[in-house]
Design goal:
The complex is a heterodimer of chains A (150) and B (101). Chain A has 150 residues and is of the alpha/beta class. Chain A has helices at residues 17-30, 38-48, 113-123, 126-134, 138-149, and strands spanning 3-12, 52-54, 59-61, 74-80, 86-88, 91-96, 100-105. Helices cover 38% and strands 25% of the residues of chain A. Chain B has one domain: Rossmann fold (3-Layer(aba) Sandwich).
């Protein structure tokens, strides 16, 4: 199970995608799952290859970066205090406004493919996504995600 | 014996998104009786992969340079992750596969 409760934030404040990305990425560093270089790498990767997606429910983003910045595989989540501008994965000319971030620390995609598949299922599940966005506490987000990712 | 289909998935870091896409496509191919094999790359590695092996098609989730495809058909694949446009992807993919048979 990649999802870790200490990597979940609810009502994360930030005006730009860089602010919210740095804020959540530094939680990964504090928790020891990612290296000091991880926040910069996440921000740079987002600039070069954006990760926002127009999910059916609302826009989301799945920020991640190269394995060299990761200590151990993990997944975190931030419900943003308000939507922030990101660019769309594959179509950087399109601006999206994600409300929830699913941040990934991946070391080996083949090992972690079952979780990646479940994350895809989550992106395609408007009901659960809305419940996550509307959750009031970290525990609530954790329980919702734990159920669909387990 | 099931026909082998070899394809290349391309995403920004060549890890997360390309794996999601590769896995989904392999399952689609299997359902139709094909034996799908994916390689995963990022955009800058793509020309090297294409020079090294024959691919039936490229599925991409990050912008690619069409001049670098060398005639290999390419299909946009973001829709496989969001679940919007899965049928269009499938249709295009099997069109490419059937036209090569």
């Amino acid at each position: 199970m990649l999802l870790k409760k200490e990597l979940i934030r609810v009502g994360l404040e930030g005006e730009t995608n860089e602010e919210v990305l740095r804020s959540l990425a530094s939680v990964f560093v504090e928790a020891g799952v990612a290296k000091e270089s991880y926040p910069d790498a996440i921000v740079l990767r987002e600039q070069n290859y954006p990760t926002a997606l127009p999910a059916t429910a609302f826009d989301i983003a799945v920020p991640h970066t190269f394995a060299e910045h990761v200590n151990e595989p993990a997944m975190g989540c931030a419900v943003l205090a308000h939507p922030v501008e990101f660019r769309q994965m594959g179509s950087p000319d399109i601006t999206l406004h994600p409300q929830v971030l699913f941040m990934l620390a991946i070391t080996d995609s083949q090992d972690q493919i079952s979780t990646l598949k479940k994350i895809m299922g989550l992106i395609q599940d408007p009901e659960t996504l809305k419940k996550v966005r509307d959750a009031k506490s970290v525990d609530e987000v954790y329980d919702l995600l734990h159920e669909v990712l387990a | 014996m099931a026909r082998e289909i070899k394809f290349l998935t391309v995403c920004g870091s060549g890890i997360v998104t390309s794996s999601m896409i590769a896995n989904t496509i392999e399952e689609m191919l299997e359902e139709e009786g094909y034996d799908g094999h994916a390689d995963e790359s990022n955009p800058s590695e793509m020309p090297t992969f294409l020079a090294r092996a024959h691919y039936d098609f490229v599925a991409y989730a990050s912008p690619i340079d069409e001049d670098e495809l060398n005639g290999v058909p390419a299909i946009p694949a973001i829709g496989l992750i969001t679940g919007q446009g899965v049928d269009e992807f499938k249709e295009r993919m099997f069109e490419i596969i059937k036209s090569a048979e």
